[in-house]
């Protein structure tokens, strides 16, 4: 008899707890609806139902009925291409991340774009890499890095000023600070692809990020490496031109000086001879 009473009391308590939870959830929903109604009333405008994401939707995921719900929305605040019918949303594939509470738009549907912007004359190639090899996972698209291949006994540079196109982390979209780097896609010359793939298969590749001062110093060194061939010829010609006239002028000056010094002596001798006569 006592066990029966205990069981009845336990069931009653469970029902009361469940009822309290339902009442709390209903109250929260009521408060949210009321707050939403106040906002809609404050902004005014025509209201209409729109499809909203009930949860976060990942890129490439097919949207099902549980991921969408309809809510009242101000027509003027709806994004371009807003979806207003569940039939138009269910079964579509998300091309990018859709956050919970976001109004669904047709621009978010379609195949996920995986095209890379490869510079003209180069090709894209992916190589395996870990966080420790990819500058602690700090490698991001747009960086220019140096590539080093290391084996058991030797280390050599296999790429300089290489453009990073994508990483395994950036391919996931969203926050690029989360997740580990497992591969890196770079842009290289077509003739370097075979060597890079072979090295990546046999050895470990490390990415190095040069400092800005090193890059600027290297450019300055190339610009001031020395005179060009034409400048050297011009300098040689000017030097020879300066030396030539100088030597000739010196000899002529010496002869002229001797002539001037001897002229008065000759004139004096002639005057003496005339006086004796």
Summarize the structure in short.
The chain is built from 5 helices and 7 strands; from the N terminus they run αββαββββαβαα.
Would you mind describing this structure in some detail?
The protein is α+β, with helices and mostly antiparallel strands. It is 42% helix and 18% strand. The chain has five helices and seven strands. The strands form two sheets. It has a five-stranded antiparallel β-sheet, covered by helices on one side. Strands 1-2 form a two-stranded antiparallel ribbon. A hairpin with a 4-residue loop joins β4 and β5. The longest helix is centred in the last third of the chain and has 48 residues, at 229-276. It is elongated.
Task: Give the SSE order as H and E letters.
Answer: HEEHEEEEHEHH
The secondary-structure class comes to alpha+beta
Largest sheet at a glance? 5 strands, antiparallel
Overall shape: it is elongated
What's the count of strands?
A: 7
Strand order of the largest sheet: 3-6-5-4-7
Mean pLDDT: 75
* H/I helix tally: 5
Question: Any low-confidence stretches, pLDDT <50, length ≥5?
Answer: 218-277
Radius of gyration: 44 Å
**Strand content of the residues, in percent?**
15-25%
| First and last CA, distance | 182 Å
**Percent of residues in helices:** 40-55%
Notable characteristics:
277 residues, alpha+beta, two-stranded antiparallel sheet, 5 helices, elongated, disordered C terminus
Summarize the SSE layout with pairings:
Blueprint: H1 2-43, E1 47-53, E2 68-74, H2 86-89, E3 123-128, E4 144-150, E5 155-167, E6 183-188, H3 193-202, E7 204-208, H4 212-223, H5 229-276
Antiparallel strand pairs: 1-2, 3-6, 4-5, 4-7, 5-6
